[in-house]
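COURSE: Structural Biology Practicum
ASSIGNMENT: Worksheet 4, Part C
STUDENT ID: 0417
INSTRUCTIONS: Below are two proteins. For each, the amino acid sequence is given first, followed by its structure token string. Answer the questions at the end about the second protein only.

PROTEIN I
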Amino acid sequence: MSGSKQATKPTLMVHLVAGGAAGLAEAMCCHPLDTIKVRMQLRSSRRLGAEAAAAQPKSFLGVGQRIVQREGVRALYKGLGAVVTGIVPKMAIRFSSFELYKSWLANGNGHVSTLGVFVAGLGAGVTEAVAVVTPMDVIKIRLQAQRHSTVDPLDVPKYRNAMHAAFTIVKEEGPATLYKGVALTALRQATNQAVNFTFYQEFKRIARQLQSVDELPSYQHLILGGVSGAMGPISNAPIDTIKTRIQKSASVGRESGWTRFVQVTREIAQKEGYRAFYRGLTPRVLRVAPGQAITFMVYEKVKSWIDLWNARSQHMRLGNEKYA
């Protein structure tokens, strides 16, 4: 697909609609795995006691089953409102900023090197982290960390929904709390998107060359997106665990972000062992990989529909002008 064709498209609207649709589909399908991941990361033998911790299920299936038994099926979707609320701007920012940074890094012929794609992915990850992901993550994690029954009307949680959680956090802890862990979130998103976009773009380029086609079928976008999506979580699992612990806890005075980072990192290493940094990796991979598979498949499909609609509209407009 040539660069001239790309330039004639309403870039922001294409990325907004296609990315939003992809993000919504991903969130609805994969959010329960994210809830299980957060619960596994927040579990601490120091808080529970040795005997209670030993009785806790270790596998992600066991944790999921325990959540459903004790809190109901709806508990797996705690925090979904925060995710859905931010998913459209998040995906719009991710794809549009990635394409923008790629265009800045392109040579005279419009070609972008693999390193350029990696840097553009880094930039897209930082951009979405600062603009949307950090406050969305803080709200989501607070909601997911609540251990209350969704089937018992008398079991009233502190945070009722995403909007109530945001209001309560700002009222009790200040608006800056919504940006707790922003540096770690930016680092996580940057590495995620750099690895994700680089592998996906390379896989797609190779698949096109091997099959001598311009566009791949949807099932191939699904497979390539899933494989590339699994790379990021493996590369930055410790960052995600530390970030989750920081965002879950309430703000304490004027404690600096670096001080909190060092404190949380030291606590995990000394009291739970280095393996705790990779707690929740399995559900995170199982959450992110299919999520990215769905995201890229739906994004590519919706984007192709928009391109087709734009092409037909332009053809009809030229036809009307010809016979006017």
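PROTEIN II
(use this one for the questions)
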Amino acid sequence: MADQLPSKVLVIGATGAIGKYITSAIVSAEPRVAQISIFTSPATASSQSKEPLLSSWKSQGLSIITGDIDNADHVRNAYIGVDTVISCLGRNALASQIELLKLAEESKDVQWFFPSEYGTDIEYDASSKDEKPHQNKLRVREFIRNNVKRVKCTYVVTGPYIDMYLPIFPGAEEAGGFDVKSKRAVVVGSGDDKVGFTSMPDVGKLVVAALRHPEVSLGRVLKVQSFVTTPNAIVGEFEKQTGTKWSVDHTPNERLREIEKDKWDANNPMATLYTLKRIWAEGGTLYGKTDNEMLGLTARDMEPLSNAVERAVNGKGW
């Protein structure tokens, strides 16, 4: 389907952190991208907390298929008539994509698969293969290289989500972040090192762009971003929007590495955050050129830093 637009898209993990942005972007895209359905658990489909979101999507033509992601027959049935599968599974469920890909390869209908690759580039350089948070995604890529021949896969690599980068997480203050209430920032290193970010709404926009341009996105690793900035520039934007000077603390890169090692040695779940913050601070999000333009998107099409900061200032999380 090198030059053929998808006709029926199935999203898995649609109501998760990034899945809701991707699904909303596909559902609301004008002109319409494709017929869209989601595969979700009966518990999610009947959840009161998810009801407003699901009702909104259904009013825009989305259909819901319920089943168990670990039940092969349920997945096979969900794949019937579907030419494109978009996985939005979270970090803890990434390994389950191997079975989803196996079933996609065996199906007669699925031709295109988007693994859940949104986030940090897991093959940025030679050191990437050793990063602990990357291992499940790397196993998925290895399975695809060795076993997926008929189905074409597209990886949408976005770098860190600015929306999740901004908060200071309790118990992980030295990993960095920005606290609106106390007007305090913690930045890694000098704060002048550049980091490439994508906003969560823009992840959805980028996936839609990839769906619209199979001639350039099919079977590709797409490296895309909303913007590049520095932690100090983020501080400046918070100061501008709050109208006050912020206090700024620094975590030296060496200190970040020490904490990262200690967290992994202690099997602390925050270890992943420290590793990712270290990768981002050391330049693991920077490219000479992104693939945005190839997908028909310019800088003006993407959200600026000010939008993400405004949401944070107004207490609007992801």
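ANSWER KEY EXCERPT:
Q1: The chain has a mean pLDDT of 97.
Q2: Residues 135-147 form the longest helix (13 residues).
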